[in-house]
Amino acid sequence: MADTTHGEGRRASSFPPWLKKTLATLATVAATILGLLFVTFMIGRVMPIDPVLAVIGERATQAQYNQTFRDLGLDKPLLTQFWIYVTDVLRGDLGESIRTGQKVTTDIARVFPATLELATLGTLFGVVLGVPLGVIAAVRRGSWIDQLARFVGLIGYSMPIFWLGLVGLLIFYGILGWVAGPGRLGIFYQGIVEPITGMLLIDSALRGEWAVFRSAFSHIILPASLLGYYSLAYISRMTRSFMLEQLGSEYVITARVKGLSEWQVVWGHAFRNIRIQLITVIALAYANLLEGSVLTEIIFAWPGLGQYITTSLLANDMNSVLGGTIVIGTIFVAINIFSDLLYRFFDPRSK
């Protein structure tokens, strides 16, 4: 009996910890995606929109209505409908858009690069300015620059993004004329660059079309800056909080007693210890910009995923709305997994 127990314990202990964490992560991801699909499925069923009439129109006959009702599988039990819905999504079939007459996946592949480009540039803006601002504010706690950083963060959190967008258009486009207006590209430059990645700044640079690049940059700089300002407010605030905690630690005091320069203490020791926390903060900020740029895209007539979902919702095109929601939710999960992998890479103790 003792030998059996010892053998069982040895087999249990030989199970690799990294495999346990991998399986746990995969199970969490699967449960999250399944929950997302269940929520979107139920939304499609409880919305006060008849999916049959949305397809065939209100002038269809009763026979046409009944046939379409069966073709859509709405005559089947709810559990069977959900199973069909899940299998279709896993195969990459998000249905057909009533508004455009194309596959929802085709539409999303066309509009998502615009959102990706906008959110990426906004996040870069927030990181490049927000991280140094948060560090300096923590080092100079109580000074004017600390007060300025807190004021900038407060404005970023308090002001509605649509209001900032309208004011920005009025000042920088309408009055000063420093940037281009709504849209993604000037009319004269439409169709000149053949898409490679779908992101105009990258594609125009790769093609060597610098006039197109300047036009695209002039259109994107204002909405990206506004999104970046929202991201900056969050990143600078969290960076300041993390740095204040580190600067009050004993190892920082010891480093200063040893005669290390302020640069070495701040950036070589304190900042190095908050990198892991910043990874999660930046990843969340990026995910929030990807899913939360709807109002910005509407104000600036930006042909991205947010505007696509909003336009589809107004047109009662639920396939497009739910398809876009699934894509955004999946991207949010993927970014969180990626940040977790980076966390483990920079912090071996979490492996």
Automatic annotation (TrEMBL):
It holds the Pfam family BPD_transp_1. InterPro entries: BPD_transp_1_N (IPR045621), MetI-like (IPR000515), MetI-like_sf (IPR035906). The chain crosses the membrane at residues 23-43, 118-139, 151-176, 216-235, 278-302, 322-343. One of its GO terms (cellular component) is plasma membrane. Keywords: Cell membrane, Membrane, Transmembrane, Transmembrane helix, Transport. It is found in: Cell membrane. It comes from the Bacteria. It is a multi-pass membrane protein. The keyword Membrane applies. Residues 112-343 form the ABC transmembrane type-1 domain. GO terms for molecular function: dipeptide transmembrane transporter activity. PANTHER family: D,D-DIPEPTIDE TRANSPORT SYSTEM PERMEASE PROTEIN DDPB-RELATED, DIPEPTIDE TRANSPORT SYSTEM PERMEASE PROTEIN DPPB-RELATED. Belongs to the binding-protein-dependent transport system permease family. This is Dipeptide transport system permease protein DppB.
